[in-house]
Design goal:
The chain has a single domain, classed as Ribonuclease iii, N-terminal Endonuclease Domain, Chain A. 72% of the residues lie in helices and 0% in strands. It contains 7 helices and no strands.
Length: 144
């Protein structure tokens, strides 16, 4: 248990959680990691920090990261990713996204929520570092 998760969930409880509940928690975990990365890039005005963060938390960035890490996932993690991708939210995305972008973003959030609740912070860190590779590629494309 850590300071952000006051309850320890059993493996069974986590597996039985609705996938959108996992995505809800994963969204917060992913957002915090993104904000820390934005801050670690150098102290800046809040508007700059916000823009840095948005570039990582957009559905497009999350979908790209999910596709990038997909082949490195365990079978268990791939199953969570599939569940997240196949989830049917009760509302449409706030903006229209093409194809499988929104489902893949939800899938990544579900995976991050799943790993966080399981307490697999080292694995979460490994996958986050892989996601950062896609952000760096995107940042470098803009400079070319």
């Amino acid at each position: 248990m850590d300071m952000f998760c006051r309850k320890e969930y059993t493996e069974g409880e986590i597996r039985e959680m609705p996938v959108l509940a996992l995505a809800h928690i994963g969204d917060g975990v992913y957002e915090l990691l993104s904000r820390m990365r934005a801050l670690n890039a150098g102290a800046a005005q809040v508007n700059t920090l916000h823009k840095r963060t948005i570039s990582m938390v957009s559905a497009e960035a999350q979908a790209k990261a999910a596709k990038y890490i997909k082949e490195s996932l365990t079978q268990e993690e791939q199953a969570v990713l599939r569940r997240g991708r196949n989830a049917k939210p009760h509302h449409a995305p706030p903006h229209r996204t093409a194809g499988d972008i929104y489902p893949m973003a939800t899938a990544l959030e579900a995976l991050f929520g799943y790993l966080y609740l399981k307490g697999e912070h080292d694995r979460l860190s490994q996958l986050w570092e892989m996601c950062e590779t896609t952000f760096e590629e995107t940042e470098n494309e803009g400079k070319a």
